[in-house]
Structure formats: C-alpha cells, structure tokens
C-alpha cells in the first residue's frame, strides 16, 4: 500500500526528533543505489523457495531491535566463550539467517563495506510484509552493526505468556506506546508457532481451569491434537498463528475476537480496556491496521540506533 508524502515526512520527522542517530531515507542513494533492489530480489527468491521466510525475517527484525536496538546483533555466531543471541531460547525458531547472509554477500560484491547488516534486516522486514500483501513504508537507513551479542539478554524479549501490563511495560521500555504494542502484535498474522509457546494454555492452566477459559473450546481441542504429548517437540508440531498465515492481513485480530488467539499474550489484548478497542478497530478496518503498522515499524526500526559500531563485511562475525 502506498502512503502519502505527508505521512512519510511525518514518520521521518518523528524519528529524527527521537533517535540517537539521524537516519536518512536516501542514505545509500549515492554510495549503493542498487541496495534495496538487491535485498528485495534476494528476499523474493528465498520466499518462493521457502514460504516460512517472511514470518522468520519479520520475527528476526523484532527480536533484534528489542535486545540492543536495531544493530544486527542477532546475526552474530556464538563463540567458545560466548553464547550469542541467535542461540538464546526465544530465537531458536527464527532461522532463515541465510537470507540476510546471501543479501549481504551480494551487496559486498557491488558496494564493499557500505551497507550495514542492520539496514539489510530492516529493509528485508519491510519487503516480506509487502510481498505478503501488507503495507509498504520508507525504511530510514544508516544504522551501524553492533559488536556484542549475548544469549542471556533474550530474556528481555516479550514472552507469549505475558499479560497486558507486562506487554505495555516491555514495549514502553523501547519507547513504544500501547497502540504500537497492539499494532506490532499484528505481525503474528503471518507465521507458525511451536507447541512449547502455547501448550501451557491447554493443560493444567490453573487450579480451577484445565484449559485457558479465554480460549475458544473447539480451537483448544484442535491445538491439543496438533500437540500430542507423545510428539509435541517435533519440528512440525504446532499451529499457524491465524487462518491466513501466509497473507499479511487483519485476520489475526478477528481470530482474537473469536477466542482463537494462539498465545496467551495475544488473547489477553481482548481482556483489557486499554487494548480491546484497538483489537476491535483493526479487526474491522484493515486499512487502519496497515497504516498504523507501517508507522510503528518505522518507530521500532529506529529504537536505540547509535552512530557507534561498524559495517560488517560478513553478517555473522565482527570485522
């Protein structure tokens, strides 16, 4: 979806006013004018080969920005003395690092030591949303790559068991509002979840309820079948996150209204007055969701951006 120049300017102005380092929509216009085309073609080809790529790259962007700001620390490999972010428990399902590595390799051939891995992730996240039917937005560029990556810091990612108060606090610590939180949660409209992220809702939920009472009963029974006790750790044991999991749309919010939010943190959005109205708004107005998602992605993409750092030559190791 195209946005007006006025809206894009407003997004850019907000970022310049709040970010620690000024980013620029035209950062690579002279130094690497083919950058976004190379990234888009790489992402498109990877998506045709593996339909799970869009959800994984979007999750990669979220998880990277939530730890140390958007600095591509999620790409760094673990070393003997240090376990890196990518090997932290919440990131085991991210995968698809090879897509960013492939794009970076191509960029190094054309524009050596110019385009940061952090910018590649941000652009790729936009592209997978657009390729999946979602909105388009202008990605501001000029991020630098971080040199520190620690698995134990992934504990700071919002968990699928969080209640609304915990979610608000987690997002607020990244400079994001309640509206941003509900909007970005809509990224769950594409993708798949393993049983481990929601099975606590299906058995021994509480002293008074075996199954989470906020969950649609028939939906809960379906999830139980998808996660049999005998084999709920298999690679394919789990469920898609909404009924149109390969399409970026507002079905995620419609599912929540029906009691079919997969994560406890998803369904919790309907039970709090601060977030319920946003779920209802986005469920009936996809254009509003797309507009807000684009704005919130720009905002998240500029959290914690600093001028210090480097432009990595290889995505998975520091220079």
How would the blueprint of this fold be written?
Blueprint: H1 5-18, H2 35-49, H3 53-68, H4 97-110, H5 117-131, H6 164-172, H7 178-185, E1 192-194, H8 217-226, E2 238-240, H9 251-257, H10 264-267, H11 273-284, H12 286-300
Antiparallel strand pairs: 1-2
Q: Estimate the strand proportion.
A: under 5%
Distance between the termini: 38 Å
CATH topology of the largest domain: Peroxidase, domain 2
Q: What profile does the largest beta sheet have?
A: 2 strands, antiparallel
The coarse silhouette is globular
The protein's oligomeric status is single chain
How are the strands of the biggest sheet laid out side by side?
1-2
Mean pLDDT: 90
Uncertain segments are: 8-19
SSE sequence, one letter per element: HHHHHHHEHEHHHH
If helices are DSSP runs of H or I spanning 4 or more residues, what is the number of helices? 12
CATH architecture call of the largest domain: Orthogonal Bundle
**Class of the largest domain in CATH?**
Mainly Alpha
Structural class: mainly alpha
Q: Could you name the CATH homologous superfamily of the largest domain?
A: Peroxidase, domain 2
Binding site for substrate: 158
Site (Transition state stabilizer): 59
Cofactor: Ca(2+); heme b
Binding site for Ca(2+) 1: 64, 69, 71, 73, 85
Describe what this molecule looks like in 3D.
One of its GO terms (cellular component) is extracellular region. Helix 7 (178-185) packs across helix 11 and helix 9 (251-257) packs across helix 11 (273-284). This protein starts with a helix and ends in a 19-residue tail after the last helix. It has twelve helices and two strands. The longest helix has 16 residues, at 53-68. With 319 residues, it is mainly α. It folds into two domains: 34-156, Peroxidase, domain 1 (Orthogonal Bundle), CATH 1.10.520; 164-301, Peroxidase, domain 2 (Orthogonal Bundle). A two-stranded antiparallel ribbon has the order 1-2. 44% of the residues lie in helices and 2% in strands. It has helices at residues 5-18, 35-49, 53-68, 97-110, 117-131, 164-172, 178-185, 217-226, 251-257, 264-267, 273-284, 286-300, and strands at 192-194, 238-240.
């Amino acid at each position: 979806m195209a946005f007006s120049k006025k809206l894009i300017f407003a997004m850019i102005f907000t970022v310049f006013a709040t970010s620690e380092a000024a980013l620029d929509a035209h950062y690579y216009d002279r130094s690497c004018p083919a950058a976004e085309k190379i990234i888009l073609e790489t992402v498109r080809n990877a998506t045709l080969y593996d339909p799970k790529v869009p959800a994984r790259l979007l999750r990669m962007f979220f998880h990277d920005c939530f730890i140390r700001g958007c600095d591509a620390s999620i790409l760094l490999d673990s070393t003997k003395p240090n376990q890196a972010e990518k090997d932290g428990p919440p990131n085991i399902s991210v995968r698809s690092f090879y897509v960013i590595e492939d794009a970076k390799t191509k960029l190094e051939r054309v524009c050596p030591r110019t385009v940061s891995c952090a910018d590649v992730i941000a652009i790729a996240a936009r592209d997978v949303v657009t390729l999946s039917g979602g909105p388009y937005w202008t990605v501001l560029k000029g991020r630098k790559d971080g040199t520190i990556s620690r698995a134990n810091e992934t504990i700071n990612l919002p968990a699928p068991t969080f209640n609304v108060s915990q979610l608000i606090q987690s997002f607020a610590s990244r400079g994001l509002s309640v509206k941003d939180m509900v909007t970005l949660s809509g990224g769950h409209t594409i993708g798949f979840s393993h049983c481990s992220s929601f099975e606590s809702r299906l058995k021994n939920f509480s002293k008074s309820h075996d199954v989470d009472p906020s969950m649609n009963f028939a939906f809960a029974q379906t999830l139980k079948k998808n996660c049999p006790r005998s084999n709920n750790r298999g690679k394919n044991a789990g469920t898609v996150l909404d009924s149109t999991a390969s399409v970026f749309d507002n079905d995620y919010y419609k599912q929540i209204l029906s009691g079919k939010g997969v994560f406890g943190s998803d369904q919790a959005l309907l039970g709090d007055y601060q977030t319920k109205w946003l779920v209802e708004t986005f469920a009936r107005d996809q254009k509003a969701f797309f507009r807000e998602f684009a704005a919130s992605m720009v905002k998240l993409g500029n959290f914690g951006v600093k001028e210090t750092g480097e432009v990595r030559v290889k995505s998975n190791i520091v220079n």
